[in-house]
Each structure stands twice: as C-alpha cells, then as structure tokens.
TrEMBL record:
It comes from Golovinomyces cichoracearum. Keywords: Repeat. This is RCC1 repeat-containing protein C10F6.04. PROSITE patterns: RCC1_3 (PS50012). Transmembrane segments: none annotated. RCC repeats lie at residues 2-56, 115-169, 170-219, 262-299. It holds the Pfam family RCC1. InterPro entries: RCC1/BLIP-II (IPR009091), Reg_chr_condens (IPR000408), Ub_ligase/GEF_domain (IPR051210).
Amino acid sequence: MTTIYAFGSNGSGQLALGHKEDVSVPEKVHTQERILFDSVNQLKAGGNHTLLLAANSIYCSGIVNHELSEWSGIGDKFVQMKFSNDSGCTLPIVSCAASWEAILFVQQDKYGRSSMLYTVGTGNHGELGHGPKVTKLTKAQLVEEFPPFGLEIKDLAACVSHAVAVLSNGDVYGWGNGRKGQIGETKQIVYRPRKITGLGFKIVRAVCGREFTCLFGDPEVGHLVVLGSDKWNLITAAPKIIPGWKDIGAGWGSIHVLMNNGNLVSWGRNDHGQLAPTGLPKISQIAVGSEHTLGLTVDGNVLAWGWGEHGNCGPVTSGGDVERRWNIITASGLTEPSVRFTGVGAGCATSWIFAKFPDT
C-alpha cells in the first residue's frame, strides 16, 4: 500500500493535509474520497493548487482560483474533479499540467487516442488556449482543432503562464506568454496552440520554466534546445547534446537532467542552492519545484536542496536555503524499517514523498 506525505507551503491547503499551515516535517495527506495512491502516475502543481492523476482521474487540492464552479469542496484535502464530454460520458484522463491559476489535461477520445485537450481556470496570457477573448473558464472546455487530425498528445508541460504539447510525430506546439521566445520566434502572447518550427529534430519530452522551455529529443542521441530567456545562462550554459538521460525537470530558473547512471546534471539559477550539489549520491528519481529539488536515491533516501523557506526542504536551513548540500528527509511517524520511499514530487515551494507500506 502506498501513502503520500507532503511538506512545504500550505497557505491554500495545497498540501492536502487537512489544514492550511506550512510544515517542514512531512505529514500524511488527506482525501475526501478514497484514492488508490498506488495508481498515481502524475503529480503537478500550480501557484496554489496541486493535481494528482490517479486511475485516469484528476484529484485536486488547494485553490485554482476563487470563481471555479466545475466542482465543489476544493481546499485542504484531495477531491476528485468531475469532467464529462458533451455526451455526458466520462473518458479516461491520461496526462495533466498546471499553470499559475489553470488546469490543463488530456483526455482520450472514444477510440482510445490521446487527442482531446481541455483547460479550465484563469489565464490572462493565453495559457487557456481558446483565443484572446477567453481568459477565464469555470468549466473545462475542449481546445478546438488541436491536435491536428491523426496525431496524439504524448507530453504536456506548463509553468506560470505558458504551456507546450509534444505530439506523436515529434512536433511541439506552444501557447500562452511567449514574450521571451519561450514558445518560438514570435515573441508575443499566443492565444491558441501554435507549432514551434525550426527545431531540427523530433521532440519526445518538454519542460517549462518561468520564462523558458526546454525540449528534448531521443535520449540515446541527446538532442536538446532551450527556448526563451537566457537569464541565469539557461541557453548559453546548456550542453550541446546530453545522451543517456532518464528524466528531466525544470524549476522557474533552472534545468535538471537525470542520467541513466544516476548522475544529475543541472544548470541555471543557483542563488539559493537550486542546482545539484557536489557529491550528490546516485539518484533514481527527481522532482523539481519552483526553486528546489527532491531526489530519491538508489538506496531509497529522499534528499532535498534549494530554496526552502516554507519548509519544503525540511526543517534545517540556512536562512531558508539548503545550499551546496542536501537534507535527508524523514516523514512524521515513519519508523518502521519495512517502509520504503518509492517516489517524490515537487511544486511551488511544496514537496511530496510516496511511501510504500508492506501489504497486511
């Protein structure tokens, strides 16, 4: 049986702990209905809300904004979001993402294809994807005429005010705030998904930071490109190629690449210790938040480093930072030697640990 623990910023109840106080020692999350945490395959976070994708459904905690009526009871517990298509039939949700005040998700069509993109919430910079007149949606709405016929959405990423989708043919589309070039050459707000051109290779994964996007090709070859602002040397410090990567993540101003050999390569902003510290143990999983990172080691320990003012890097910091070192995280009440950590998650000063208990 898997249980999720959370710690960090919690002023809107986004940690789903049953209260709205910041915590620095991980506590067990609360749910309004039973969730099979073993089935969770995505955890995404917006400004003050958290999404869990479990068993093809989305569960939300915190506040997306104050005017949503698609569901009720969102607060300090995870609540299932109820979505249906025009015929009233609920179809499987296969991926999700979050901007500052919006939720994006991909639903399968009746043929089992990942071809329906929905958005809901607030998007003042085009991140809802429905044109310049749509800045707020109180009910999830299908983004029309996307993706192109016959293609599926294979990866979906978002940050504060822009989003990108990777398609089954290796193309990538972006929308939202593009003023820094983070969704292509036209440096402006893009109100509907638009193809990013001139990349030179097929894209398989994407991550978004505050004012940039990093696109990755085949991990065996290692092609990558960073679009957008070069603040913090995000573009100039990027490796030409990085073959052998296993997973990728981005903070607001940093990029992190987990390699197959357990090493973590990172570049970008480091004024709060956001980048991988020297001597880091071998890592099997990463989760990158706004200005901090969690790593699950191959030995099963959870490490945290970076900006941790809200407790999201654990209780021991230097003026709010965990810099040039890491904290080893333990969860409240977890003293059984048979319990093992199996995953990590991170958001806007929020952190998450997945713990596996022996079946009884």
